[in-house]
Design brief:
The structure is a homodimer.
Chain A (H helix, E strand, L loop, with lengths): L7 E6 L15 H20 L7 E5 L11 E4 L4 H10 L6 E5 L8 H9 L4 E5 L5 E6 L12 H11 L4 E3 L3 H4 L5 H10 L4 H8 L2 E4 L6 E4 L1
Parallel strand pairs in A: 1-2, 1-4, 2-3, 5-7
Antiparallel strand pairs in A: 4-6, 5-6, 8-9
Helix pairs in contact in A: 1-7
Amino acid sequence: MTAAMDVINVIIPFKPSNPKSRLSSILSRDERLLLAESMLRDVYEAVREVIDAENIAVISPEPFQKEWFQGRVLVDERSLDECVNSTIINRCSNDAVAIIMSDLPLLSGKILQEFFSADGDVVAAPGRKGGTNMLLVRDSKFRVSYHFGSFFRHMRTAESMGLRFTIFDSFLASVDIDEPSDVLELMLHGSGKHSYQFLASLGFYVDFSSKDPTLRRR
Amino acid sequence: MTAAMDVINVIIPFKPSNPKSRLSSILSRDERLLLAESMLRDVYEAVREVIDAENIAVISPEPFQKEWFQGRVLVDERSLDECVNSTIINRCSNDAVAIIMSDLPLLSGKILQEFFSADGDVVAAPGRKGGTNMLLVRDSKFRVSYHFGSFFRHMRTAESMGLRFTIFDSFLASVDIDEPSDVLELMLHGSGKHSYQFLASLGFYVDFSSKDPTLRRR
């Protein structure tokens, strides 16, 4: 017997006000906003390869409109945890909820297809420093908590509820762009992405002449 | 028709002299050597879950002997590139050669099983900063070159030879332990590993009380 494919509702949280402040040593405020938007576009387009636009929502504290975006916009000023948990509680039966961070420009349709197909009541893709870069929730009991090493918090929460927790092991999904060393990873692996092209247009490139590849700006 | 499973010869390069110098801000020289050995043991034991000991070799410029190690030791003072390339050239027909770095303590038998099963003439698992953390070579034409962003060098070499190059996308295989921020990842994800237990015995732990998890020593 083949079960009907469950609908997956994808949420992409996005905060346009002073984004990516840990990049202020290498990017102006305007550049950081444009980078954040181009990364969101990369994430959206990767998700769109496997999910219909009507099942993709950007959650933002402010209105959001772009010509390339055909998904839904949920303007919500509550905390990320409150927004996401209310979506999990209110999901339709059998629907799954996936929370994909907006700063994962190295995602692809192939990675997301594997992620959405992974077994488990809760599937989580770790970022560095204990972050939860992608989360797939198939049980309405589960609640998210996105601070202080959220990956392990999500693992413990699932286990305490008797839910099956699966680690989705992907380097490309682990690279969230927070610090200059992350921008290096984007310039190394992101050829063809909108965010890569934006950074290249600002003059960023990788210098391969020293022992380790180094991020530079012309 | 089912092809006979090719033999995979695994090489683990190991340099015991003043290892992991970028950790000297948090570890003494003796501690760094013990950490390097415990990581090698983690890697060896993960490989042993899927590969016979006789097909595992440590390459080292100095003799190497440990009671937990049943593989072969190749004492070779040449550069890593020369050692590995001569192994690739001299492999038996159909044998594959895998080069697994010795500082990847988060590897598991499951990850290695998937890595060894991946399609491609050359399969590479990226580390951060353009490194090649694991490499599987199924064609004797291929040559390695481990400096200056080796991952992209290996990709270009394969493509220039008309070989199929496959990216093996794993976060846990991407974490090579070079810097203190990498030790944080080991203490976050490495519970049960020899290297984790060694660092815990030195007093290292993760402080979850601040915004980001932080590595501390008692």
